[in-house]
Amino acid sequence: MKVLVANLGSTSFKYRLLDMSDERQLARGGVERIGSPSSRCFVEIGTSKVEMEQSVPNHGVAVDACIQQLTNPTSGCLRDASEISAIGFKAVHGGRVSGVQIIDESVLQAMDEMNSVAPAHNPPYMAAMRQLATMAAKIPLVAAFETDFHQTIPEAWKRYAIPDALAEQLPIRKWGFHGASHRFIGWRMSQLLSNSDARVISLHLGGSSSLCAMRGGRSVATTMGMSPQTGLPHNNRVGDLDPYALPLMMEKTGLSLKDLLKVLATEGGLLGLSGGLSGDVRDLEQAAEQGNAKARLALDVFIAEIRRQLGSMLVALGGADAIVFTGGIGENSITVRRAVCDGLHDLGIALCETKNQAGGNQAGEKERRIDDAARGKAQLWIVPTNEELIVARQTVEAIRKPQAQ
């Protein structure tokens, strides 16, 4: 069974094709700058890499372009599109609909209801899903919602202190996101620790970031709330913000609520803290080393928030057997890992600087321990996440379920 896993952004479409008989990746690729006259299309199949530019006006055409790449008679890995058993989407927010769902109009309507909460994510996913339902009608489409993994969080950790009547009428709660990434880390760490009941804190640090406390591979607490805009500062999204700051900003700027929310979701976060310099930690680290004070501030705020939230995750679990760095920043930033762990020896967290700076283990793999076992109780790990594998597994389960009934 071959499953295509789709990961969409507002102007991008990335995918992986997996053979689920052995969970082997057959191909990866995508399209960038969708809507531009010169969109970048790329595909990697084995050691072969193909890249080209063409006009890709929307996400539906992007998926079609990718299927053409995969079925190319000379460079593809499929005879035709019928070899794809299903397309799984790493969907973000369905509000009243969560879990893993075969996509139909009721699922799309539920996603539509949450557009104002996930404006950068839901609209492009919905557009691609609707276009694919027409263009590839015979291929089942599955939405694996990121919120699903966090349904196990206790009520006291997911409720806002709003009037109960509002909570009953509206989907206002701490939903949590990055579910596929945290689920993978929980599963992988149970193997690495040989402990199915391990207390694990996953630090997914990247373009958007969140922490998740897990026991036995189940979410106990997480840092994102009702929307993907919340929690830690993201690359260009504000993160947590006192709601009473909004009317003050509206009054002083003259912006409408809609326009202000757009500013906070596109010009905030690390980008905003750095004075518009960059939302990319790599750029900020380089600028900070050269004496840029705003870049230094952006990094300091980011680290401070990670540490603050790490403390709450430790309390939720009563300690940790392992703390895991994943995502682009978590896997690659030596300085972020060092700063997060600095001075936490009394909490059983001790980083080994030599291991932290190493580029990989002796086999050249990124997955490795970086703690000083002689000084700390909690193991520290770098583990590359694999969201696509999780979505592919969930997709297979979803399309098999009707056959088993």
Keywords:
alpha/beta, Nucleotidyltransferase, domain 5, eight-stranded mixed beta sheet, 14 strands, 20% strand
Named CATH architecture of the largest domain: 2-Layer Sandwich
Number of strands: 14
Could you say what the CATH topology of the largest domain is called? Nucleotidyltransferase, domain 5
Strand content: 15-25%
Order of helices and strands: EEEEEHEEHHEHHHEEEHHHHHEHHHEEH
Overall number of structural domains: 2
> Can you give the helix content as a percent range?
25-40%
Would you write up a description of this structure?
The chain has 405 residues and is an alpha/beta fold. The protein folds into 2 domains: 143 residues, Nucleotidyltransferase, domain 5; 193 residues, 2-Layer Sandwich (Nucleotidyltransferase, domain 5), CATH 3.30.420. The protein contains 15 helices and 14 strands. The strands form 2 sheets. Strands 5-4-3-2-1-6-8-7 form an 8-stranded mixed β-sheet, sandwiched between helices. α6 crosses α15 and α11 crosses α13. The model has no long low-confidence stretch (mean pLDDT 92).
Short description:
The chain is of the alpha/beta class and 405 residues long. It has 15 helices and 14 strands.
